TrEMBL record:
Domain of life according to the entry: Bacteria
Coiled-coil positions: none
Name of protein: Glycosyltransferase family 4 protein
Pfam families for the chain: Glyco_trans_1_4, Glyco_transf_4
Amino acid sequence: MRILLWYWGRRGGGAQFTLGLAQSLATRPGVTLALSVSAQGELLDSFRNLSVSTNIVETYRDLPGFATGLLRIPALRRQLLASAQGADVVISGMTHVWTPLLAPALARAGIPFVPVVHDALPHPGDFGWAWDWRLGRELGAARAAVALSDQVASILAQRVPALPLIRMPLLAMLSPATAGGEAVAASREGGLRLLFFGRFRGYKGLDLLRDAFRRLRQAHPGVTLRVVGEGDAEALAPGIGTLPGVRLERRWVPEAEIPRLIAEADAVVLPYREASQSGIAPQALAMGVPVVATPVGGLTEQVREGAGGVVATAVTEAAFAEALSSLFLPGRMAALRAEARRAGAAQADWGGATDALLRGLGAVLR
C-alpha cells in the first residue's frame, strides 16, 4: 500500500501523533510511505530521520505569514496533488487551517483521502467559527475517517452515517529512556507532586482544579501542584498561581522536555469538563505515572480504575478533591504505579494500532 501521510501543522499533539504514525508505518512490510510536512514544524528533523520520501512545504510561523500564505493556496494545492500522485491513499494526521481548502482537490482527482479526526465538535469555550464548515469540507472529501475515541466515532457516525470509520487509539510518544516507567521519580518526602500539563483552555477545568487543590492542601499540606502550559491560566482560574503549593509556568514545552516533565510528577491530573481524548494520559500511563481524571468523553476510555487511573465520581470540585485524596491512602500510590506499568505497554502499542489502521484502509480501498 502506498501512503502519503500529510500534516502541515507546526507543533503540538497533531505533530506528535503524525510522527508516531509515520515511524510505525515506515517499518510495516508492504507499505511504501511518503510524507508531506511543514518546513516550520518543530519535529521536522525527526520526520527527516525516517529516510522516506518527504515533501517539505513552506507554511507560516505567525499571523502575517498565515495571511500571505492564503495567497499561495493554488500553488500549495498543486504541490499536494503532485506529492499524492501514485499514492493509494492520503492520510491527514490532523486537521490544519488549510486542510478544508485543499482536501476536496484530492477527491476531485480520484485520490482517496482519509482524515484522522481528533475532535468531532468544538470544545466548550474554544473558538468555533467555521468549525462546521471546516469539518464538513473534510468529511465531504473523505473516502473514510479515522476516529481516536468511541465518543468521536459516535458523533461522526451520526453526522455522516454512510462514511466508513476506522477506530484507532491515541497512543503515547515514547523515547527508549522513558519506556516502561523507567524515568518515574520517587515521591518527594513530605507530599505528592501533581502535574497539570497542556494548553490552557476553558474546557480543561483549571478552576475546578484550583478549588479541589485548595481543599486537598488543607488536609495534606505537603502536596504540590505544577501547572505548565501555554495560555492565560489566571483568566480561566483567577488566583490559581498564588495558591500555596502551586507552581504556575506559562510557557510552551518543547517535545524533548515532555517525558522529563511527566517523570518528575507522582500523578498527572486531568480535571476536564469535556474531552474527545487526551494526549497526556497515554504518555503518563506508559511511563508508569498514575492519572486522575474526570469521567468525561474519551477520558473514560483512556483512564480506568485498575489500570493506573483514578476516576472522579462527578465533574465537581468535591468529587475531584476526593479522587485526589485517595492517592494518600496507605499503599495506594504504589499500587497505582504498578498498575500503570502493567497496563503501560498497551499505551505505546503503535504496531497493533497501525495494523488495525491498515486493515481498515484495506477494506475501504477494496
